[in-house]
Amino acid sequence: MLISAVAGFSISIALIVAIGAQNAFVLRQGLRREHVVPVVLTCAASDALLIMAGVAGVGSLVTGRPGLMMAIRWGGAAFLLCYAALAARRALRQGALLPTERPPATLGATLLACAAFTYLNPHVYLDTVLLLGSVAQQHPHRWVFGAGAALASVVWFSALGVGAQRLAPLLARAVAWRVLDAVIAAVMAGLAVALLLG
Q: Checking CA distances to 120, which of 66, 126, 159, 196 falls within 20 to 30 Å?
């Protein structure tokens, strides 16, 4: 059982650490110190739900519906391009305000954006439902494997949210936030193009 748990944790953490839309969003929220705990909980709970769906074998149903995957791909790409445009606009704006000087987004709007970054991103389904789900089927204790994978998500998002808050003093100048927004815009646009090229 321990081997399955460690395998699930290791594979999941390797997949989740790569910079992506969800990680960039959590990082930005952590740096702004805005609704960090609800965002971390939403991301971790969403990953756990998708991982367990994969362990239960839902991946075979998704791969059997190419129309559904196409709709998710196009919707996800459109969302990422819109977010990239907003981040680019913030980066290009002269005299951009520090995030701490901007009015905070409501909890509802923040969690809606968090859910969009999670559920409109086809890579999330590929990593959790399909990849982790298929690897779990090869372990004698597949649910323990899934629990280990879900734990990796909790550990990563917690570390990212808390760690980002510690970086806030380094990003106390507006120019640093403009650079961060430029990087986020490039990452989002790159992910959107990758989705469209399939």
A: 159
Question: Residue 26 is encoded by which pair of tokens?
Answer: 């959590």
35: phi > 0 → left, psi -120 to 50 → alpha, else beta; which?
left
Q: What is the CB neighbour count within 10 angstroms for residue 95?
A: 6
The string of DSSP letters for 37-75 reads HHHHHHHHHHHHHHHHHHHTTTHHHHHT-HHHHHHHHHH
Report the chain (198 residues): mean pLDDT per 10 consecutive residues.
88 77 84 90 95 85 71 76 83 61 81 90 80 83 93 93 79 74 82 76
Task: Tell me how crowded residue 101 is: count the other CB atoms within 10 A of its CB.
Answer: 8
Measured between alpha carbons, how far is 31 from 103 in angstroms, rounded to an integer? Answer: 14
CA distance 66 to 18: 26
Check: CB of residue 187 under 8 Å from CB of residue 19.
yes
* 95 torsion bin: left (phi>0), alpha (psi -120 to 50), beta (else): left
Residue 77 makes CB contacts below 8 A (sequence gap 6+) with 192, 193, 195, 196
Q: What is the pLDDT of residue 171?
A: 65
d(CA 89, CA 100): 18
